[in-house]
Design brief:
Blueprint (H helix, E strand, L loop, with lengths): L12 E6 L4 H14 L4 E4 L11 E3 L2 E2 L2 H20 L7 H16 L3 E5 L17 E4 L7 H4 L3 H8 L9 E4 L3 H14 L3 E4 L4 E7 L2 E6 L8 E4 L5 H15 L8 H9 L8 E4 L2 E4 L4 H14 L4 E7 L6 H8 L5 E4 L11 H8 L6 E3 L3 H12 L6 E7 L1 H11 L1
Parallel strand pairs: 1-5, 1-6, 2-5, 6-7, 7-8, 13-17, 14-15, 14-17, 15-16
Antiparallel strand pairs: 2-3, 3-4, 9-10, 10-11, 12-13
Helix pairs in contact: 1-7, 1-8, 2-3, 5-6, 9-10
Length: 402
C-alpha cells in the first residue's frame, strides 16, 4: 500500500514507539523537544479523545478537516483499487496509518513520532522499515487475547518493532520484559539502552508538576521539570531524554531546548485536570490503575472521590475495580461509545459493589457527570471527580465538563 502511495514514509525520519502504557506521553515529550529545537514534526497517536483529527498533529496542532479529507480520499481510492483487484480492504487502523504517512509527507515534516496501534510485531506501523530509533515504554498485561498472557510474551510482540542495527531505548523496570527486549536487540545487532526508575530521582512533586534529575553521564544530575503530577510521567520523559541523547549525532538538540521541550509538553487524558477538582485519566489496565491509585492517594488524601468508570469488556475490569473503587465515596459506571466492545454499566457496577458501598450504573456519560457534579455541590468543597478507564469516552467527559 505504501509503495502504491509513492512511499510517503521515506520523505521524513521516524521515531517508532511501542509499549503497553506511556506510549502517547513519550511521543508527546519527544515531539515537544524536537519542536523547541526547531524541527518540523508530525505526531501519529491513537485513540483520539474528542475528534479523530487529534491522531494527526503537525507541529503540535491537530490537522484541519480539509487536510483530513484530502488524505482520506487518496487512501480510499487505493483501497477501492485493492478490492477491485480481488485483494483486501485495509482495516480502520491501516487506513488511518496510511493517511498519516500521506499527511506528513505532504506537509514536508522533518520527523514523525509514530505510536503503534496494538502490539508491535504485526502492527501496521512496522511497515516503516527504517526508523532512526525504536522506543519501548512500560510493558504490562493488556490485550492478552491478542498479545499473550504473560509480560514476556507481550514484550516479544512489542519488541517486534526493533529493526536490525537501529538503536532501541526501553523501559527496563520489569525484568522479564527487559530480558526479552535485550535478547531481541542482540539478535538483530541493535544497540540497546535501558532506562530504569533508579536512573531518576524526584526532587519536588507538587500540584503544579514534578522536578526530577536524570542521572547519567550525558545529563549528569541535571534537573528537569515536567508539567504533570503523576509519577509515571517521570519514566516516560526519561525515555524521551534517553532517546534524544542516543540520537545526538544525527539529531542535535541543545540542553536549553531539551529543558524547554520537556517543560512545555502537553498531553490529554493522563491525570489531566479538566477543571479544578475534575480529573480524567486513561487507566484501563491493572498497571495503569495502580499508578492512578498512587496519584489519588498522594494528591487527594482526605477528599471524597466521585469516581466515573467505563471500560471495554476485554479488560481486567475485576482487578481495575478492586484497585480503584475502595478509594471512592461513590462510583458511577457508564458504557462506552463502542457498543460492540463496551462492558455493560450493570456488570461493571456489580464488580464495583464488592469494593464500594455506593455504586450506580448510569444510562449515559452525561448522566454520570451530572450526578457526580451534583454530589459535589457548589464549589466542589472537599470533593474530587475522577473519570477513568478507556480513553474512548474521556473526550466526552471533557466536552460535558468544559
Amino acid at each position: 500500500c505504501l509503495r502504491r502511495l509513492g512511499n510517503p514514509q521515506d520523505k521524513f525520519k521516524v521515531i517508532h514507539v511501542a509499549g503497553t502504557n506511556g506510549k502517547g506521553s513519550t511521543c508527546a515529550f519527544l515531539t515537544s523537544i524536537l519542536r523547541e529545537a526547531g524541527y518540523s514534526c508530525g505526531l501519529f497517536t491513537s485513540p483520539h479523545l474528542v475528534e479523530i483529527n487529534e491522531r494527526f498533529q503537525i507541529n503540535e496542532v491537530n490537522i484541519d478537516n480539509d487536510t483530513f479529507l484530502r488524505a482520506f480520499e487518496k487512501v480510499k481510492a487505493l483501497s477501492d483499487e485493492l478490492v477491485a483487484e480481488g485483494s483486501y480492504h485495509p482495516t480502520y487502523f491501516e487506513m488511518l496509518f496510511l493517511m498519516g504517512m500521506v499527511i506528513f509527507a505532504e506537509a514536508g515534516v522533518d520527523y514523525v513520532t509514530l505510536e503503534t496501534g496494538l502490539g508491535g510485531r504485526m502492527d501496521a506501523t512496522t511497515a516503516v522499515e527504517n526508523p532512526v530509533a525504536c522506543v519501548i515504554t512500560s510493558i504490562s498485561l493488556d490485550h492478552m487475547q491478542y498479545l499473550g498472557d504473560t509480560v514476556a510474551k507481550i514484550a516479544g510482540e512489542k519488541a517486534g518493532i526493533i529493526v536490525p542495527g537501529v538503536p532501541v531505548i526501553y523501559d527496563g523496570n520489569d525484568p522479564d520484559a527487559a530480558a526479552v527486549i535485550r535478547a531481541k536487540a542482540e539478535e538483530l545487532g541493535s544497540p540497546a539502552y535501558e532506562v530504569k526508575r533508579e536512573d531518576t530521582e524526584i526532587i519536588r512533586n507538587t500540584s503544579a508538576g514534578i522536578d526530577f534529575s536524570f542521572r547519567n553521564d550525558y545529563y549528569g544530575d541535571t534537573v528537569f521539570s515536567i508539567p504533570f503530577i503523576a509519577k509515571y510521567q517521570v519514566m516516560n520523559s526519561a525515555l524521551a531524554l534517553k532517546t534524544i541523547e542516543v540520537l545526538k549525532e544525527v539529531l542535535p538538540v541543545s540542553m536549553d531546548k531539551i529543558h524547554e521541550g520537556i517543560e512545555k509538553t502537553r498531553w490529554q487524558g493522563r491525570m489531566e485536570t479538566v477543571l479544578p477538582g475534575v480529573i480524567v485519566d486513561g487507566a484501563h489496565n491493572e498497571d495503569a490503575a495502580i499508578k492512578l491509585r498512587m496519584s489519588i492517594e498522594r494528591y487527594f488524601k482526605g477528599k471524597e472521590i466521585q469516581l466515573i468508570m467505563g471500560v471495554f469488556q476485554d479488560k481486567e475490569y475485576e482487578k481495575i475495580t478492586s484497585i480503584l473503587c475502595p478509594l471512592a465515596k461513590k462510583v458511577y459506571t457508564v458504557e462506552l461509545p463502542n457498543k460492540a466492545r463496551t462492558l455493560s454499566a450493570g456488570k461493571l457496577a456489580d464488580c464495583a459493589r464488592k469494593y464500594c458501598e455506593e455504586v450506580e450504573a448510569k444510562d449515559s456519560i452525561q448522566s454520570a457527570v451530572d450526578s457526580a457534579t451534583a454530589a459535589c455541590g457548589a464549589g466542589m468543597n472537599n470533593q474530587v471527580i475522577i473519570a477513568c478507564g478507556s480513553l474512548s469516552y474521556l473526550g466526552e467527559v471533557k466536552r460535558i465538563v468544559e
